């Protein structure tokens, strides 16, 4: 993906912001979400899986929600 950005400078010539087309911004957001999903998947694969009965999972969720 080729990004065509415009850098916004302050009075001293220091870069303070970047402008990009909305279409490129949306594509970047999609790509970041996909990267987060990939990272979460990789992390889940590395973990040792511990399976518990569904009823126990529901109980744990209820306890967690009460604490929040």
Write the layout of secondary structure elements.
Layout: E1 6-9, E2 15-19, H1 22-46, H2 54-67
Antiparallel strand pairs: 1-2
Q: Please tell me the overall pLDDT.
A: 90
**Tally of DSSP β-strands:** 2
- Helix content range of the residues, please? 55-70%
Structural class, judged by helices and strands? alpha+beta
Strand line-up across the major sheet: 1-2
Hey, roughly how much beta strand do the residues contain?
Answer: 5-15%
Largest sheet: 2 strands, antiparallel
Q: How far is the N terminus from the C terminus?
A: 41 Å
Radius of gyration: 22 Å
Q: Overall 3D geometry? A: elongated
Oligomer: single chain
List segments where confidence is low: pLDDT < 50 over at least 5 consecutive residues: none
What's the short story on this structure?
This protein has 68 residues and is of the alpha+beta class. The protein is 57% helix and 13% strand. The chain contains two helices and two strands.
Keywords for this structure?
68 residues; alpha+beta; 2 strands; elongated
Explained architecture:
Helices cover 57% and strands 13% of the residues. It is built from 2 helices and 2 strands; from the N terminus they run ββαα. It has one domain (6-67). It is α+β, with helices and mostly antiparallel strands and 68 residues long. Strands 1-2 form a two-stranded antiparallel ribbon. 0% of the residues are buried.
């Amino acid at each position: 993906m080729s990004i065509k950005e415009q850098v916004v400078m302050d009075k001293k010539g220091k870069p303070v912001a970047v402008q990009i087309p909305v279409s490129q911004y949306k594509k970047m957001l999609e790509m970041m979400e996909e990267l987060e999903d990939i990272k979460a998947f990789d992390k889940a694969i590395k973990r040792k899986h511990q399976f518990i009965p569904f009823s126990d999972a529901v109980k744990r969720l209820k306890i967690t929600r009460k604490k929040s």
